[in-house]
Write a structure and sequence with these properties.
Blueprint: H1 2-36, H2 51-64, H3 71-97, E1 110-111, E2 115-116, H4 117-143, H5 147-170
Helix pairs in contact: 1-2, 1-5, 2-3, 2-4, 3-4
Length: about 180
């Protein structure tokens, strides 16, 4: 019984990773479309996902779910957690691939151009919505899908994601409006 629970839990978190990565992709594409008036496939990968958002979504659930009845706590902890994830991943990409996928140098209260107050507050709001509202709804809907279909769906997503990662390691997505010098 415990092994079955663990497998269901792992598959649910994999689902949350891809859901967060996809919602983050939609958010950034929409944001840049509104700002610049053009479609821009944001991020290191080519598919419709931004793993930094997937990592943030899973970490927020793992760490903050126990506070879901306390949205003010979730807000402040999500500010810290989201900022840490963005700082670490931004720094890592700059060190390993010599690319910057975001730059907050022109924003007030920024740190190294990797994080700023503006994005931190956005993480707080997104964290409250994700942990206190949307993850519960998504979990409920996910559980309605038969387990064999869940596994097929996730297997296909993982394979596509791994293929995308392999392609991006060879040819990183660094086109116009994607990276900063």
């Amino acid at each position: 019984m415990r092994k079955d629970y663990l497998i269901k839990s792992i598959t649910q978190y994999i689902f949350f990773f891809f859901l967060g990565a996809f919602l983050g992709y939609l958010w950034e594409v929409l944001l840049f479309y509104v700002q610049d008036g053009v479609f821009c496939n944001r991020g290191f990968l080519y598919g419709p996902w931004l793993p930094v958002y997937g990592v943030g979504a899973v970490l927020m659930l793992l760490i903050l779910r126990r506070f879901q009845k306390h949205p003010v706590k979730v807000f402040f902890l999500a500010v810290l957690l989201g900022s840490f994830v963005e700082l670490f991943i931004g720094w890592f990409l700059a060190q390993v691939f010599h690319l910057r996928y975001w730059d907050y140098h022109d924003y007030p209260l920024q740190l190294g151009g990797y994080i700023c107050l503006y994005s931190a507050l956005g993480f707080g709001i997104a964290g409250v919505l994700w942990v206190c509202v949307f993850a519960r709804i998504a979990s409920h809907l996910w559980k309605k899908i038969p387990v064999p279909l869940q596994r097929i769906f996730l297997t296909l997503l993982i394979l596509a994601f791994l293929f995308d990662c392999a392609a991006a390691l060879i040819f990183p997505n660094a086109g116009h409006n994607i990276t900063f010098s």
